Design the sequence.
């Protein structure tokens, strides 16, 4: 049996199967499909879904609900991420597990509401004050939209941090045919819940303390200010240093665990085509067609954009002379690739006209 | 699970307050502690959600659970906590500044009647940041940002939340003898409860305005702002109402797999673009074509293009059907274009002009003069006896196109049309489309328009 569904449907299904119990969002094209499906399905699954008065309220409710025991997700598009910014920082500082879906649309400001883009790839990484790391996953197919949503919930719980699922107008709203049995089995992550003692822990820096929820046996202090392990505001330099290093190290120190990429590498390849998200489909098709024409090509579709999957990148560029990076922006992720490229030529294939990059357009550059 | 309630003799901890001498915050917090003693609640089941500013420091002096978030957003966190765990006592402590920057949250929490208690420490200015004017600063008052006197009318917090449905609304001062009793009443009220407590900011507002305890009451009088319990309504709390409504809903929607009951001999992938008007069921018609293809063992993908408006402008769907999985990469020049309306035609005109002679354009008589090198087929709805409803023109034309190209058995399309919502209307439209004959009738071979493309 096959199904005819879009990426939004797969995201909602992945969230529900991963144990999502709370959703809050505000209508915005092209993410409204997720909001409407969550409003319809989540109460049927025993959870709570609410349409906030704005994006700020929506993410705020998600953070509050998480501290009260929920598994929360919200979904928006670029302009909504702008409004999420301060609360993304709160979730980073307070170590709140939270899944944020960004269905990208084109351009700054209102931009092109119904137009595809990959323009938020750096924005989600650096979208709040302080520069601390977040995790960003990017599906490139409908099936990946399902299991990467579930993986986002796992990583959010594992590392007590906001995890972005970066998708776009085309992937979220384009209907595709999928085999019913192509969805991998997803189990809800069992949250480690602390009950007594300090709700935060900074040493060893890469360790993550269990989440302390409200309404259990002991009182819990949560704060977005610089705090000691008990949750009291502090300016004590050694404590502040330990806190801030912990916020970074807990993610940077576990890169290998977070890293996800779909590599199609051949030893004799001289050119690597590297993409992510909706452009991943064109990357795969270009590699297939290029090889058919006798070109020596490897392909890499990155599924965990942040932290940058260094091991997968190093492996993929070994022996390669040239890297082609197609993106629906003016080269925003290419600069991450360039950091690893050394002397290799890095060529961008870029569109910001609202149209997709075709495999042929990539192959024109490959030659 | 039953949790044994272990109320405290006081909910304040031992840490001394950090507030200025004479500041109202200390006495309001002592009164809050007294009210919690009266409520005899387990401190682990109480969450004090503090906003930002001097009042935002408050949670640190209590032995309850605490949430200290961002300026103006305290009500949103409290809402999330209450929605997830309605049995918890959730108390927001915020200054008048928070009611300004978080005004939207204040109004909407009141409107929803989420069962939280909001305690506003209203000292008529921003204390922590240097005595600037706030949304509640009275007209004429001098602050560091209104050196010539405030020109703005102050926000009547109580009237605002009251008129928008709040369950319980009270206004008093830090000196009101009934404050502890009113806090108890507010917390016990099932709906949204707000206490607007006016107080003295001895660092800024008092010296700048020669303000006194008596001034609190006279200012209320001068502004016509009433005090006491201003609203007390029987309301249904939102989180409880949500759960009640949710219990009546059916189970979660199951996936809807599409059975493969037909077969197609299509050997290459074919791209169709259907171009019509927004609101004219173009996308749902296109979807039925894809479902019919899947019923025939093929793979399909559908990408839609439409403006931000709903029932005006174009609606264009691209459908790619083939024997193998489809990568959604966008169609630049389609094999087949189906023109349903003017809106659609003007959107895809560049595509039609670029189509090669091997392509096929199918349309109604009114667009028969469209310029294209592709083979043009015109179908005339007046040839069938059944009247074609305007809303079904896309499906009628697509059905005629599918029959013409023989992409898959027409039975698959009839099955797809008959299986979803609007089954009767859709089947009728498909039948009308199948009955229509193209004028030239020169095309009939499978995938005729697909030459040179795969």
Sequence:
């Amino acid at each position: 049996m096959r199904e005819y569904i879009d990426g939004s449907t797969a995201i909602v299904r992945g969230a529900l199967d991963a144990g999502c119990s709370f959703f809050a969002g505000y209508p915005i094209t092209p993410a409204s499909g997720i909001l409407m499906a969550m409003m319809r399905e989540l109460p049927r699954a025993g959870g709570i879904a609410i349409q906030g008065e704005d994006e700020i309220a929506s993410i705020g409710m998600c953070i509050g609900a998480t501290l009260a025991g929920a598994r929360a997700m919200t979904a928006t598009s670029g302009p909504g991420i702008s409004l999420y910014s301060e609360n993304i920082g709160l979730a980073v500082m307070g170590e709140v597990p939270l899944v944020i879906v960004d269905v990208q649309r084109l351009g700054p400001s209102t931009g092109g509401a119904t137009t595809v883009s990959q323009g938020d790839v750096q924005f989600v990484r650096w979208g709040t004050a302080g520069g601390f790391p977040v995790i960003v996953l990017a599906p490139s197919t409908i099936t990946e939209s399902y299991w990467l949503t579930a993986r986002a919930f796992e990583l959010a719980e594992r590392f007590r941090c906001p995890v972005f699922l970066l998708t776009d107008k085309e992937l979220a709203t384009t209907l595709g045919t999928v085999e019913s049995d192509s969805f991998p089995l997803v189990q809800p992550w069992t949250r480690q819940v602390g009950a007594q003692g300090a709700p935060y822990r900074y040493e060893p820096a890469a360790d993550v303390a269990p989440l302390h929820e409200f309404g259990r046996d002991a009182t819990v202090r949560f704060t977005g200010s610089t705090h000691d392990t008990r949750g009291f505001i502090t300016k004590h330099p050694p404590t502040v240093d330990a806190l801030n290093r912990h916020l970074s190290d807990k993610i940077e120190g576990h890169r290998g665990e977070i890293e996800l990429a779909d590599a199609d590498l051949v030893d004799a390849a001289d050119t690597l085509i590297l993409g992510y998200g909706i452009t991943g489909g064109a990357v795969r098709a270009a590699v297939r067609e290029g090889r058919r024409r006798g070109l020596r090509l490897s392909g890499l579709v990155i599924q965990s954009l942040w932290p940058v999957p260094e091991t997968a990148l190093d492996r993929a560029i070994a022996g390669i002379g040239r890297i082609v990076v197609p993106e629906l922006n003016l080269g925003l992720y290419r600069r991450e690739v360039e950091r690893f490229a050394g002397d290799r030529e890095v060529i961008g294939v870029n569109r910001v006209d609202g149209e997709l990059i075709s495999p042929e357009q990539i192959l024109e550059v490959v030659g | 699970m039953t949790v044994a309630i272990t109320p405290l003799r006081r909910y304040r901890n031992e840490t001394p307050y950090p507030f200025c001498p004479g500041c109202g915050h200390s006495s309001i917090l002592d009164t809050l502690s007294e009210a919690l003693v009266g409520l005899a609640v387990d401190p682990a089941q109480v969450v004090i959600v503090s906003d930002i500013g001097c009042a935002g420091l408050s949670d640190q002096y209590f032995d309850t659970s605490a949430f200290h978030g961002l300026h103006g957003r305290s009500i949103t966190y409290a809402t999330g906590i209450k929605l997830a765990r309605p049995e918890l006592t959730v108390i927001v402590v915020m200054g008048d500044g928070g009611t300004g920057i978080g005004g939207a949250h204040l109004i909407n929490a009141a409107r929803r009647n989420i069962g939280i208690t909001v305690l506003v420490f209203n000292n008529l200015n921003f204390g922590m940041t240097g005595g600037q004017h706030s949304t509640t600063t009275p007209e004429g008052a001098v602050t560091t940002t209104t050196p010539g006197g405030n020109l703005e009318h102050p926000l009547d917090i109580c009237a605002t939340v009251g008129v928008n449905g709040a369950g319980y609304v009270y206004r008093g001062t830090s000196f009101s003898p009934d404050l502890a009793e009113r806090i108890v009443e507010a917390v016990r009220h099932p709906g949204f409860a707000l206490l607007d407590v006016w107080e003295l900011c001895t660092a800024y507002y008092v010296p700048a305005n020669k303000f006194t305890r008596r001034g609190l009451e006279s200012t209320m009088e001068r502004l016509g702002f009433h005090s006491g319990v201003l609203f007390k309504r029987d309301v249904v709390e939102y989180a409880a109402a949500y759960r009640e409504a949710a219990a009546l809903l059916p189970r979660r929607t199951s996936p809807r797999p599409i059975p493969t009951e037909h077969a197609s001999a299509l050997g290459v992938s074919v791209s169709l673009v259907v171009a019509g008007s927004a609101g004219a069921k173009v996308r749902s018609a296109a979807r039925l074509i894809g479902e019919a293809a899947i019923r025939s063992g093929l793979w399909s993908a559908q990408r839609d293009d439409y403006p931000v408006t709903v029932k005006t402008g174009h609606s264009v769907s691209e459908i790619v059907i083939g024997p193998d999985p489809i990568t959604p990469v966008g169609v630049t020049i389609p094999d087949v274009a189906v023109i349903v309306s003017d809106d659609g035609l003007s959107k895809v005109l560049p595509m039609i002009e670029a189509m090669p002679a091997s392509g096929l354009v199918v349309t109604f008589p009114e667009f028969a003069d469209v310029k294209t090198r592709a083979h043009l087929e015109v179908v005339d709805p007046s040839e069938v006896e059944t009247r074609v409803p305007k809303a079904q023109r896309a499906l009628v034309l697509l059905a005629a196109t599918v029959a013409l190209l023989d992409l898959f058995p027409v039975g698959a399309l009839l099955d797809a049309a008959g299986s979803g919502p609007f089954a009767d209307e859709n089947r009728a439209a498909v039948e009308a489309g199948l009955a229509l004959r193209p004028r030239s009738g020169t095309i009939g071979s499978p995938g005729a328009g697909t030459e040179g493309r795969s």
Remarks:
- The longest strand of chain B covers residues 314-322.
- The radius of gyration of chain B is 34 Å.
- Chain B touches chain A through 70 residues (CB under 8 Å).
- The longest helix of chain B spans residues 24-39.
